[in-house]
Design brief:
Layout: H1 4-19, H2 23-36, H3 41-53, H4 57-70, H5 75-88, H6 91-100, E1 118-123, E2 130-138, E3 141-144, E4 159-172, E5 175-187, E6 192-200, H7 205-215, E7 219-222, H8 223-226, H9 232-235, E8 253-258, H10 261-275, E9 278-284
Parallel strand pairs: 1-5
Antiparallel strand pairs: 1-2, 2-3, 3-4, 4-5, 6-8, 6-9, 7-8
Helix pairs in contact: 1-2, 1-3, 2-3, 3-4, 3-5, 4-5, 5-6, 7-10
Length: about 290
């Protein structure tokens, strides 16, 4: 016989263990809650959530599918099913999940493309937590359009899996954009990040560099203008007034996305010829492994 009271207690114990960072105890408690009442959706969802953040996509998909089956109106379960199915490349299942969340999408075995515009994406949320701009392809995929800092594992053009829960916001030109956390790299870009150290930077030179790089199929960014250091509360929430006027100091570095050193050298040679900028040195950023 199902024991809902026992399941509730075990589910709560799992939640408390998860809150204190004990994932092993949390998983055990959630599984015990499922065993106590297999027809209750909540511990399936919670265990599926735990598996999502651990990158255990097969398990997360199975658990969220069961939670959605038991509670068809639970859009959070459907959404996490969509994320897990996207991570697995199960596009028909992902489309089914998005429809259950009210997204208009047909059946199909290929990845859906919605082109939902740009949104900020937080990379490596547990550590450096750099926020970059990306173009949303669908509810759980986005292509990075910024040139990430050299410390990032991600590169310009990477397609990343993003969470559905907003974790902060950014306001640009009066418009508010939700920030989503990246969960994994789904399609690595062939581009490398090159660091360009500058001695002088004539007015308008960055615009020229961006144009030349784009014409060559890459991208460029002045990290000094694009980068702003925020406290953790502001990064994961709303930027508070104590950051007003708190601009990062002029940064002597630019980021250049190019396929290889030969392409980077060609872009920079053309740029220097046109602008007279003075480059101290340039080099490829070592590629680190995603967390």
């Amino acid at each position: 016989m199902p024991d809902r009271d026992a399941a509730v207690d075990l589910n709560q114990a799992g939640h408390e263990a998860s809150e204190r960072g004990d994932r092993v105890a949390a998983e055990r408690a959630y599984r015990d809650a499922i065993a106590a009442d297999p027809e209750w959706s909540v511990p399936y969802y919670n265990l599926g959530l735990l598996c999502k953040y651990a990158g255990r996509w097969e398990e997360s998909a199975t658990l969220n599918a069961r939670a959605a089956e038991l509670s068809p109106d639970d859009q959070a379960a459907w959404w996490n099913l969509g994320i897990a199915a996207t991570a697995l490349g199960q596009w028909r299942e992902a489309r089914r999940a998005w429809r259950a969340c009210g997204v208009t999408v047909d059946d199909g075995d290929d990845p859906p493309v919605f082109n939902w515009g740009q949104t900020p994406i937080r990379l490596d949320a547990a550590d450096a937590a750099e926020v970059v701009w990306a173009r949303r392809l669908d509810p759980a995929r986005a292509r990075i359009v910024s040139v990430p800092l050299p410390t990032a594992a991600e590169r310009w053009g990477d397609v990343v899996l993003n969470d559905g829960a907003r974790d902060g916001e950014r306001v640009v030109d009066g418009r508010t954009y939700p920030v989503f956390n990246a969960l994994a790299v789904l399609e690595p870009s062939p581009f490398e990040t090159f660091v360009v150290e500058l001695a002088t930077l004539p007015d308008g030179a960055i615009d020229v560099l961006e144009t030349i790089a784009e014409e060559q199929g890459g991208a460029a960014e002045h990290w000094g203008e694009a980068t702003r250091i925020l406290c953790r509360d502001c990064s994961h929430g709303v930027v508070h007034h104590h950051h007003d006027g708190d601009e990062s100091p002029a940064h002597p570095h630019c980021g250049l996305a190019a396929l290889d050193a030969a392409q980077a050298e060609a872009i920079l040679a053309r740029w220097l010829e046109q602008t007279g900028a003075d480059v101290i040195k340039w080099y490829v950023a070592p590629r680190s492994s995603p967390a």
